[in-house]
């Protein structure tokens, strides 16, 4: 079987998006060319996520839809559902040609060779000695690049499937990370996003350097204007890291810091190993050292045993912290996790109703915060055309807020420009660049660090 073209469909988090870049790199190295859509591609790779609800159902229904095309492609299943379901996916449909879990994604070339020999390979599991890095990567963006720093997780929160689907924590050598980031800066990328499930527990396996050291070293790389990082765990945030955020202007004034629940009783059941008071204390210290830092968070509603009072604690925490963005989810039991077996599961109707109430609060707060920015000038890195209108640019402020503004002809993709905020929604800002003399100068791509 000779495959010539591929198309990748990606579900889930930043990690998965970056894995898709890695998958694309390996497919190209194997001689396949990208197709514009799944229709007409010889191979469709489903890079799946099982962190949220009904993932297997979604993947199986997508496999069914692709298999029933007049000229069905070969389907490859990657990502967390591949790890979770393994060989059983081959039984679901004859169109599935291979199954490769996140821990084996670097062996995709081997899977393709086996497929060409008429086999249907299944590669799952993890090699603890295998650390991320040194891969062929096809970058989806020419302005921002993702770089894996830590793979896997040791936290074992009772609701989360990641330690089972991505394995135990493996940090990458600091020198290797720096080499990759220098390469991105040399290629003209302006922003780098460092990735890890609990990135602030990073520890260099060679030198023992901590995440603060890594961040400092990355921020000092010439040509790089911005450094972002996801995701941080509250219990691994120390004073040195806070001081580093405050001292490095290249490090984005943005932090994603999941709190998951505002109730200590629920936090203990989640095995978060940090309390509400510790979380609030950390936020206070962060705000003192990095004024104006934009915070986003993850929160789960309807965790087993969550009562109205616990939920009210989560709402109160939202009001107290005032996050710029909230990613909220109704609890859904994940295979192999302890919380799936907990008693006192919350009825679906209650979860839905709580989620709705939570979004009402979080959207109101996001809107209030965004409205405070109307009239100010924001430094925006242009990273593409607006999806709704080709006459508009879309970019992000250095605090990671999304901003759309009409093109003026004086700026280009990858430039950093001053944009005046003229209107605000809960999830994005609208801006304009009416008078160049009143605005920040444009920092052209390739002109060095901002
Ligand atoms: S810290 Fe908890 S929620 Fe985050 S990836 Fe690890 S186990 Fe999952």
The unique ligands bound to this protein are: iron/sulfur cluster
Counting DSSP H or I runs of 4 or more residues, the number of helices is 13
* Silhouette: globular
CATH architecture of the domain at 5-123: 3-Layer(aba) Sandwich
Task: Write up this protein.
With 450 residues, this protein is an alpha/beta fold. Among the domains are: 5-123, Methylthiotransferase, N-terminal domain (Rossmann fold, 3-Layer(aba) Sandwich); 377-438, OB fold (Dihydrolipoamide Acetyltransferase, E2P) (Beta Barrel), CATH 2.40.50. 32% of the residues lie in helices and 21% in strands. It contains 13 helices and 19 strands. The strands form five sheets. Strands 2-1-3-4-5-6 form a six-stranded parallel sheet, sandwiched between helices. Helix 8 (211-219) runs parallel beside helix 9 and helix 12 (308-321) runs parallel beside helix 13 (348-371). It is globular and about 60 Å long. The chain binds iron/sulfur cluster. Iron/sulfur cluster (SF4) binds at residues 153, 155-157, 160, 162-163, 197-198, 233.
